[in-house]
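Interim report to the steering committee. The following record documents the input for Protein-disulfide isomerase (225 residues).
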Amino acid sequence: MAGVLALVVVLAGAAVWLLREPAAPGSIAGAGLTIALGEDGGIALASGAADAPVVELWVDYACPHCRMFHQESGEGLAQMAADGDAQVVVRPVSVFAGAGEPDAGNSLRAGSAALCAAEYGSAAAWTAYNDRLFTEQPMQGDPGFEADRLVAWGQEAGIDDPAFAGCVSEGRYTDELAVYTQEAITRWGSFGTPTVAVEGEQVSGSGGALPTLEQIREAAGGTPV
């Protein structure tokens, strides 16, 4: 499956947001950024601009194309949220759950851990953890994302709530990931991760390629840089 876009997706669901503290000054996310975990599995990063356009991003942490997209645009998207130019909603899914081991387990453990990090961490800690998950992404077909390492990376990112370790170890959001993935398929039909939408409209690059940060900014009504 290497080099192939993974199939995904999601239904719009009611969102009850659990707001946590702003990111620490000097973090990649920027001062004033908040994180909120919705009942629909969306991890929302924003800086209080309620009327800012919504940029949604569906990712699977075992997906090589998601890692590539994060390397190219992840920091820029976090900065858009910090600057109030967008409300960025990251939606973990597990399109590799049906791929067989070890890829299925890698996908499910990392996706669940990312949701645990959003539940128990600050915006700064979550963005650092999100970075770490993509940095440490194992090669397809290789084992990785063991629970003890997922816990340790969260602690290193600044997640100090002791409940985080239990959340990761028990795979609290594993079942929900299957629901979020099916909801996404229902919403969009077959498509690949990562998928980006601005104000509910999918954004793609030329010829169906991954969108660039500039294209996302333009779709959100901003000025490309």
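The helical segments are 64-82, 103-120, 123-135, 147-157, 163-169, 174-188, 213-219. The committee is asked to note this result when reviewing the revised timeline.
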